[in-house]
Amino acid sequence: MNESNCVDIAREKVNLETSKIAWQELQRFFASGTAVFVASPLDLVDVAYQFSIDNKEQVAQWLQNNQIALVSDQQALEWLEADSEVWAVVVKPWILVQK
């Protein structure tokens, strides 16, 4: 199996692990500081894949560009009050979420 196939399989695995979930169900992860917001222009699966392969350079670039960040108190409150659903995926120890 070539490298491209391995990457495709890994990305597909991440894709299969995403789901919609009520933000309310993720409150404990927010409280523990492990909920990461992924801005909508980014592909949640791609971000999760880059986290899973520990691509520090790409993650640092997204952080610097404010494209990913820990979920803010304001976001958490707005989502809770609106009873929002988010797309989420676990990349231990993080929970990546996208509105």
Could you please describe the fold and organization of this structure?
This protein has helices at residues 3-16, 27-31, 44-52, 56-64, 73-81; strands at residues 19-22, 35-38, 68-70, 85-91, 94-98. The protein has 99 residues and is of the alpha+beta class. Strands 1-4-5-2-3 form a 5-stranded mixed β-sheet. Strand 4 and strand 5 (94-98) form a beta hairpin. Helix 1 crosses helix 3. The protein is globular and about 50 Å long. The model has no long low-confidence stretch (mean pLDDT 93).
The secondary-structure class comes to: alpha+beta
Cα Rg? 14 Å
Question: Which overall shape is indicated by the principal axes computed on the Cα atoms?
Answer: globular
Given as residue ranges, the uncertain stretches (5+ residues, pLDDT < 50) are none
Helix and strand element order: HEHEHHEHEE
The overall average pLDDT, rounded, is: 93
Strand order of the largest sheet: 1-4-5-2-3
Number of helices: 5
Number of strand segments: 5
Task: Compose a concise summary of this entry.
The protein has 99 residues and is of the alpha+beta class. It contains 5 helices and 5 strands; from the N terminus they run H-E-H-E-H-H-E-H-E-E.
